[in-house]
Amino acid sequence: MGWLDGQVALVTGGTGGIGSAIVRRYVAEGAKVGVMARDATALQQLQEELGDAVVTIQGDVTRYQDNQRAVDTTVETFGRLDTFVANAAVFDYFTRLDRIEPEKLEESFQKLFAVNVQGYLLGARCAIEPLRQSKGSMIFTLSNSAFYAGGGGILYVTAKHALVGMIRQLAYELAPDIRVNGVSPGATSTPMKSLEGLNKRSVPLNEIPGFEQAAAEAVPLKRIANPEDHTGHYVLLASKQNSGLTTAHIIHSDGGWEIRKAAG
């Protein structure tokens, strides 16, 4: 018996890093899962791995039509929707405001916010009605950058801070029918990519020289997370039996970033 037996979830950005770890954990806990992502090859590989426990949808979270198609496909395939997990995001490779060329600032802002904020809102809007029917929940992936400076550049940190307000407002608007919560991972060894064209030095997170060691040394628990380290929080928040009174809450999964000691 799993914690999510009989439940159905939809996960965006579900083919890599934390997203695919959530999908695998949900399936292990008894859930059926719709998986939305842009990479058709990665979606096919996940479908072959997990079989009829998942249905895959190729789409772009910045487009309303694609989000609606993902919700509709999940409901049509599995008969219901209990949890919507918004997880797709792009990074900004720690780029400071004064390092962004003025002529690129507006375009870069719009592209990053379209994925990291607008994509969450579009998915949430499309999921409202089936979640009302199931008395379900929404779970949003944040970051320690939603609470502290220095975990990214100006665009990424600003976008993640915006999501804190989004969770609280959605929890207020959608109660009592839908619970709305978040998980705030710290530094994680993932292939998360940065916005194209913003920083010439940009590489995926897990390819930054020294990143894993520096991230581990920055927190009291002295290790960087693997994607699987966060998945239990997503299971808990999706479980109707074990978190039925939890809403407007964000679980920190960051190795104790708030209590890190000063250098020296």
From TrEMBL:
Spans traversing the lipid bilayer: none
Domain of life: Bacteria
PROSITE patterns xref list: ADH_SHORT
Keywords annotated in UniProt: Oxidoreductase
InterPro entries: NAD(P)-bd_dom_sf, Sc_DH/Rdtase_CS, SDR_fam
A Pfam family annotated for this UniProt entry: adh_short
Alphabetized SUPFAM superfamilies for the sequence: NAD(P)-binding Rossmann-fold domains
Membership in a protein family: Belongs to the short-chain dehydrogenases/reductases (SDR) family.
PANTHER family reported in the protein's UniProt record: BENZIL REDUCTASE, CHAIN DEHYDROGENASE, PUTATIVE (AFU_ORTHOLOGUE AFUA_4G08710)-RELATED
UniProt protein name: 3-phenylpropionate-dihydrodiol/cinnamic acid-dihydrodiol dehydrogenase
Species in which this protein is naturally found: Paenalcaligenes hermetiae
Gene: hcaB
